[in-house]
Amino acid sequence: MSAGSRGRMPSAWRQAISEDHSGEYEWIPLRLPPDVTRISASIRLSIEAEYRGWELTRVRLYTDGSRRVLLRRKKRADRPHDPDQPGL
């Protein structure tokens, strides 16, 4: 999953992000292609949670087998913003 795999977000997700008025979270939408199995996706997202602090907030499964995932993590002053995160 890379910056190129990010696409349009579902409107409900944009609304959820806009409702974060505190601004204490950074958000990242990802697209998992159909060839990524459920177990592989679970392992990849667990690694992101463990080592980079991302947490899973929303998942959508599409009929072609692809998934869209919305991750968030608390902003920290000592962590520079990196738009290419996560680097699965």
Task: Give a written overview of the molecule.
The structure is a single chain. The protein is of the alpha+beta class and 88 residues long. The protein has one domain (3-74). Helices cover 26% and strands 26% of the residues. The protein contains two helices and three strands; from the N terminus they run αβαββ. A three-stranded antiparallel sheet has the order 1-3-2, with helices on one face.
Taken together, the total number of domains comes to 1
**Terminal CA distance:** 5 Å
Counting helices, strands and paired strands, the structural category is alpha+beta
H/E element order: HEHEE
Overall geometric form? flat
Global mean pLDDT: 79
Largest sheet: 3 strands, antiparallel
Contiguous runs where pLDDT drops below 50 for at least 5 residues: 1-6
Report the total helices: 2
Portion of residues within helices: 25-40%
Number of E-type strands: 3
Task: Give the oligomeric state of the chains in this entry, treating copies of one chain as homo and distinct chains as hetero.
Answer: single chain
- What Rg, in angstroms, do the CA atoms define? 13 Å
> What is the strand arrangement across the widest sheet?
1-3-2
Beta-strand percentage range: 25-35%
